[in-house]
Every structure is written in structure tokens, then in C-alpha cells.
Amino acid sequence: MVVQINLLPKKEQKNRTYLLIMVIFIMILVVTSFLFYRKIASLKEEIQQIQNEASEMEAMRISLEKKTEANHQANVENIKVLQEMVERAEQLPINTVDLLARISNLLPKSAYIETFQYVEQTISMTIVIREEMEAAYFYRLLLEEKWTEDVKVLNVQAIREDAENINTLSEYRAKLEIVLDKEALKTLQKEDPS
Q1: Which residues contact 185 (CB under 8 A, 6 or more apart)?
Q2: Coiled coil located at which positions (predicted)?
């Protein structure tokens, strides 16, 4: 019988489980690193997006502040203009209804006021009358009034009523300009408020 004696140290077998554990650990480490990198990149994108939105909001805020300031300045200017107009109106308080009533009382019965414009101290008006002589009569009555400084007949124009019959003229349009004596008119309005 032969007996074998191995004097060499026994060779240890490489542990495959150890190698497998190391490979799994490295794979887990790589996957975790990749996921961590993706998360950081995603967070950087979100931060950049939030910063862009913040800068856009700041630009919008500045734009709105400028518009608000411009609107405020325009409103202040409009208020000043309105106050000036009110002050002017308070300085020259003439009752326009009374003035129109006085003018209407002087008109011939068949006449009527077509246009009426009252600016400062001057009245520009157009009346429609039946005869040219009525315009002269109305002019004369206005001149005799205490509240008129000057009266001008700018023109008298014929109006055709029937387009087929050229010879028929039924009405006239007279344009007048009246300069008021405001103090006399105010006095009359105080004496006779009707």
C-alpha cells in the first residue's frame, strides 16, 4: 500500500462568494452614484428654472411699477386739469338754462334754435326761421338786451324744403354770434331767478 503524503500546503480555493459580494457591492455603488448624480442634475435644473421664474417675476414687477407710476402721474395731471376747469367754472357761474330761456323768449314763434355753443363769453348759435325779416327782428331784439355786449349775424342761408320745386324756399338758417355782458346777466339772474 502506498500512502501519499502531500507536504505542500493545501491550496485554498478562492472564495467565489466573496467575489460575487464584491461585484454586487460595486454594482450597487455605481447605480447609487448614477441615481445620486441624476438627482443632483434634476435639482440644479429646478433651481435654474426657479431662478428664471424669479427674474421674470422681478421684471414684471418693475414693469407694473413703472406703469402704475405713469398712470398715477397721468391721474395727477388729469386731476389738476379738472380742478382748473372747476375753478374757471366757479369764477363764471352763469345759469345756461336761464340764458337759453331768455334767448328763446326773444325768438319769433315759428323759429327754433338748431345749434347752440357757449364758450367763455361768446355764444355761437344757428336758428331756423320762416322769413329773412325774422332774422333781422331777432337781431334787433338781441342788441336791445342789457346782457349782450355785441351781436353779429354771420350769415343767413335759404333752406329748400321741396327738392323737386327749386323755386320754393320755406325756411332760412341764420348763424349768429353773441358776446355776453356777464355782470349784467348775473345781475338779471339774481333779480329774476325764473
Answers
A1: 94, 99, 147
A2: 40-67
At 93, the amino acid letter reads P
Q: Which three cell numbers stand for residue 109?
A: 314763434
Residue 100's pLDDT band (cuts 50, 70, 90): confident
Cβ–Cβ under 8 Å, residues 178 and 122: yes
DSSP string, the chain: -------SPPPPPP-HHHHHHHHHHHHHHHHHHHHHHHHHHHHHHHHHHHHHHHHHHHHHHHHHHHHHHHHHHHHHHHHHHHHHHHHHHHHS---HHHHHHHHHHHS-TT-EEEEEEEETTEEEEEEEESSHHHHHHHHHHHHHSTTEEEEEEEEEEEE-S-SS-TT---EEEEEEEEEE-HHHHHHHHHH---
| Distant-in-sequence, close-in-space partners of 152: CB < 8 Å, separation ≥ 6 | 176, 177, 178
For residues 145 and 102, give the distance between their C-alpha atoms in angstroms, rounded to a whole number.
10
- What's residue 63's pLDDT? 92
